[in-house]
């Protein structure tokens, strides 16, 4: 039996692995998997087969040291592999502090920092960085192709009747619902180009129906309480997007494409019914499958497939398991294997929660809900929580809640049985009396709520947030602290050395003056400018190359579509509308995906530009101490890079936030050719009547001809769009560079202030011993607080 030890840190993305106490061999394939910076979920599914291949052994004892959620992923993978062959397997878990414990530790450390001896750690910048990192939004996008009960599901999770859910009011706008505990529903209504149209201190269902029907409305931003999460830990945002054929604004399709893209890490709820298989469904699932094809379990985890309206299932539809198996097979045909399936009855869940909240419900709905509750509780095939794709620990917790409610229901039954009223009733209605009392009890409704499956979906969302979003957030907060502590610590260490080396004050002052002169030196400034221009130029050329590759990729897609049209041959005029509708959908989808990919290039261009600029500034700081006489400055060296270390470190997340803020401030869209409507060549036909004139007396048309007409203009515009994107990338980079140059001047001034302070500190002879003691006390505090901060991301 092979003994395998795995220790995984989800905050630092570090993995340790030994086999029989030995480190992995140099030529082991596993070494590439456990490299620092790689998330466990990116390689865990490959682990069983790699172990079998490398060690030719089927008897393992695995000890995992890490969080419960990561241990559950490990167990799930090995259980799945175990079903395929004969294994002797034992898995042990060494528990660690969970993510929820880390949030509390962060708050404690931040409070201690704010009460510490350094004013620099109490300034607005670090407070803003801390609050921003804690309040980072986590987006959950809800998509569906038909009237699958998407809005009803959202309302059920909100416990409120907010989103329009009638067939006449299907979603035509984007609604962003941000969690804000203990707050009634407030909203801001925006038109195109994010122009504010209305504000509402109290949003109602009726107002939302009206807004959904108004053509000028594009986006509604809502704030209110999402009950199943805590806004202190997670700023959860539920995003309701229009279906593929119900969007009034081309921008909506781009937004949905962004969520479904491979680079997105947002959670996606894909709503289906037991009936499925439309063309729109096929196209949307194709995009989902492409996104899920990215290596790693996280790509699979971020898609939750919800099969709604399971309470409407009839006997002829088959068993619950049978329906879910058919859906699994359907998804498999689209390249989606082992999906996270969650059967749900959203409408009963909503009505149960509305009743519990004391909301006004009409008698007919109350009667229907009562019947649904009875059906859900008494029909085991409708105990939908049993079919949810959840780890055993979460299922156990849900079952524990269910048992509690069942016991409360039994108490109600027993109380009725022993009541005076029961004793006085005729025997013929005693059983009915108990049944009616039980059915009306709160616990009976709570049981049914669990059986609707909505509680399981909410648990899955919380699990994803904790596993992926919160670990990244904690690491970002810790990095913010560490960078600032390093900067303050270096400055304090330098002060301490200066105080202790007061006999060399002349040399120290000379060194400081040399650095100050270099900061002002025109040649140094010019070299820095050249480095900046060269860095930006390299990044921009790389972006241009990627943009051309994207253009080629989409041209290949169009060519393939035209070739498929060629296979259709002749199309009757009566079928022409259907054909043009299909081409219209395809062109719209292609346009939104193309824009998303180009926007990703621009966004990545700005991130890379940011990193390049920061590196240029670090290089400048390093060069400030080059060519100094080592003999003169042998006792102490002033290092500008260390003095400014906390001020010139930015994470990708911080750069991303900077980019978003900048775009809002500028009020610009990067794609400037939307009004050209190059993706709608069919509107050109309608305007000049060319299509009807040409084929008015013709009985058929070749499918390839109509496809080529549609896509010739599209292909021509791809080149213009890439050129336009390149211009925008240049324009945005130039703005970024200008902003950075101003920031670098500010940093230069900060450095000069620090150096001037150090110069004064080195030359003043009074109270030296007291200063040394103060520095040493401050350094001890810094060491202690840094250990506390670093311990947050240890397991």
How would you summarize what this structure contains?
With 795 residues, the chain is α/β, with parallel strands linked by helices. The chain is built from 27 helices and 16 strands. Strand 8 (186-190) and strand 9 (196-200) form a beta hairpin.
Plain-language structure description:
The chain is an alpha/beta fold and 795 residues long. It is 60% helix and 11% strand. It is built from 27 helices and 16 strands. The strands form 3 sheets. The chain has a 9-stranded mixed beta sheet with strand order 9-8-10-7-11-6-12-13-14, sandwiched between helices. Helix 19 (505-520) runs antiparallel to helix 26 (703-763). It is globular, with a radius of gyration of 32 Å.
List the main descriptive attributes of the protein structure presented here.
five-stranded mixed sheet, alpha/beta, globular, 16 strands, 795 residues
Q: Number of helical segments? A: 27
Helix percentage range: 55-70%
Q: Rg from C-alpha positions?
A: 32 Å
Main pleated sheet:
9 strands, mixed
Report the principal-axis shape: globular
Structural class: alpha/beta
- Residue runs with pLDDT of under 50 for 5 or more positions: 629-634, 657-699
> Using DSSP, what is the number of strands?
16
| Average residue pLDDT | 79
Strand content: 5-15%
Placed side by side, the strands forming the largest sheet appear as 9-8-10-7-11-6-12-13-14
List the helices and strands and how they pair.
Blueprint: E1 2-9, E2 14-19, E3 22-23, H1 30-33, H2 47-55, E4 59-65, H3 68-82, E5 88-94, H4 99-114, H5 124-134, E6 137-144, H6 150-158, E7 174-179, E8 186-190, E9 196-200, H7 205-213, E10 219-224, E11 235-240, H8 250-260, E12 267-273, H9 279-292, H10 297-301, E13 303-308, H11 320-333, E14 340-343, H12 346-357, H13 363-378, H14 392-417, H15 420-424, H16 427-439, H17 442-451, H18 454-500, H19 505-520, H20 522-568, E15 570-572, H21 576-623, H22 640-643, H23 652-666, H24 681-688, H25 690-695, E16 700-702, H26 703-763, H27 768-792
Parallel strand pairs: 1-4, 4-5, 6-11, 6-12, 7-10, 12-13, 13-14
Antiparallel strand pairs: 1-2, 2-3, 7-11, 8-9, 8-10, 15-16
Helix pairs in contact: 4-18, 4-27, 5-18, 6-12, 8-21, 12-13, 12-17, 13-17, 14-16, 14-17, 18-26, 18-27, 19-26, 20-21, 20-26, 21-23, 21-26
């Amino acid at each position: 039996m092979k003994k395998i030890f795995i220790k995984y840190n989800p905050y630092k993305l570090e993995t340790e692995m030994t086999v029989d106490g030995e480190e992995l061999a140099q030529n082991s394939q596993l070494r590439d998997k456990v490299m620092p910076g790689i998330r466990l979920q990116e390689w865990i599914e490959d682990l069983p087969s790699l172990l079998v291949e490398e060690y030719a052994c089927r008897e393992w004892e695995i000890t995992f040291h890490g969080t419960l959620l990561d241990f559950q992923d490990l167990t799930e993978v090995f259980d799945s592999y175990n079903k395929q062959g004969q294994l002797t397997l034992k898995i042990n878990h060494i528990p660690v502090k969970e993510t929820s414990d880390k949030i509390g530790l962060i708050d404690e450390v931040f409070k201690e920092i704010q009460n510490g001896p350094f004013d620099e750690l109490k300034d607005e910048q670090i407070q803003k960085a801390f609050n921003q990192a804690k309040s980072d939004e986590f987006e959950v996008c809800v998509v569906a192709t038909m009237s699958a009960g998407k809005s009803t599901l959202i309302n059920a999770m909100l416990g409120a009747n907010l989103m329009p859910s009638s067939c006449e009011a299907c979603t035509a706008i984007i609604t962003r619902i941000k969690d804000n505990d203990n707050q009634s529903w407030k909203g801001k209504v925006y038109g195109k180009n994010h122009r504010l149209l209305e504000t509402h201190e109290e949003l109602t269902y009726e107002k939302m129906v009206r807004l959904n029907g108004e053509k000028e409305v594009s986006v509604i931003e809502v704030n209110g309480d999402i009950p199943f999460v805590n806004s202190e830990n997670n700023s959860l945002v539920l995003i309701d997007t229009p279906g593929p054929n119900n969007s009034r604004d081309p921008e909506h399709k781009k937004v949905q494409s962004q969520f479904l893209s491979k680079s997105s890490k947002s959670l996606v709820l894909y709503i289906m019914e037991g009936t499925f298989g439309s063309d729109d469904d096929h196209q949307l699932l194709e995009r989902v499958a492409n996104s899920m094809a990215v290596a790693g379990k996280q790509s699979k985890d971020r898609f939750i497939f919800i099969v709604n309206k399971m309470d409407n299932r009839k006997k002829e539809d088959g068993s619950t398991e049978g329906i879910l198996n058919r859906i699994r097979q359907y998804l498999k045909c689209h390249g989606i294997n082992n999906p996270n399936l969650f059967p749900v009855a959203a409408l009963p869940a909503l009505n149960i929660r509305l009743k519990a909240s004391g909301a006004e419900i009409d008698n007919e709905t109350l009667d229907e809900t009562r019947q649904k509750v009875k059906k859900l509780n008494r029909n085991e095939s409708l105990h939908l929580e049993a079919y949810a794709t959840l780890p055993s620990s979460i299922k156990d917790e849900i079952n524990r809640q269910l048992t509690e409610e069942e016991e409360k229901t039994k108490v109600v039954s027993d109380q009725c049985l022993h009541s005076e009223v029961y004793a006085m009733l005729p025997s013929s209605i005693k059983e009915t009396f108990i049944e009616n009392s039980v059915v009306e009890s709160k616990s009976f409704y709570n049981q049914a709520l669990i059986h609707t499956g909505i509680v399981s979906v909410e648990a899955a969302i919380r699990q994803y947030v904790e596993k992926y979003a919160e670990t990244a957030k904690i690491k970002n907060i810790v990095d913010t602290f560490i960078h600032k502590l390093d900067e303050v610590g270096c400055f304090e260490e330098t002060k301490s050395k200066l105080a202790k080396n007061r006999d060399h004050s002349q040399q120290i002052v000379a060194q400081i003056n040399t650095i100050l002169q270099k900061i002002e030196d025109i040649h140094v400034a010019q070299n820095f400018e050249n480095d900046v221009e060269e860095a930006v130029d390299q990044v921009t050329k790389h972006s241009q190359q990627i943009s051309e590759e994207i253009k080629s990729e989409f041209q290949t897609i169009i060519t393939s579509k035209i070739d498929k049209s060629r296979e259709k041959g002749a199309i009757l005029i009566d079928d022409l509308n259907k054909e043009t509708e299909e081409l219209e959908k395809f062109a719209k989808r292609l346009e939104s995906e193309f824009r998303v990919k180009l926007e990703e290039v621009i966004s990545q261009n700005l991130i890379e530009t940011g990193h390049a600029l920061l590196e240029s500034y670090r290089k400048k700081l390093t060069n400030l101490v080059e060519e100094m006489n080592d003999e003169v400055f042998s006792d102490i060296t002033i290092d500008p890079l260390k003095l400014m270390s906390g001020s010139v470190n930015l994470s990708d997340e911080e750069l991303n936030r900077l980019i978003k803020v900048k775009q809002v401030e500028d009020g610009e869209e990067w794609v400037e050719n939307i009004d050209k409507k190059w993706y709608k060549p069919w509107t050109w036909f309608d305007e000049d009547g060319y299509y009807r004139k040409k084929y008015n007396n013709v009985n058929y048309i070749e499918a390839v001809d109509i496809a080529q007409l549609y896509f010739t203009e599209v292909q021509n515009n791809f080149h213009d769009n890439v050129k336009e994107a390149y211009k925008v990338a240049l324009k945005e980079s130039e703005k970024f560079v200008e902003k950075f140059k101003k920031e670098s001047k500010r940093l230069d001034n900060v450095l000069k202030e620090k150096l001037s302070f150090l110069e004064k500190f080195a030359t003043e002879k009074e109270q030296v011993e007291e200063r040394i003691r103060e520095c040493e006390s401050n350094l001890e505090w810094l060491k202690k607080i840094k250990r506390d901060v670093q311990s947050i991301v240890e397991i």
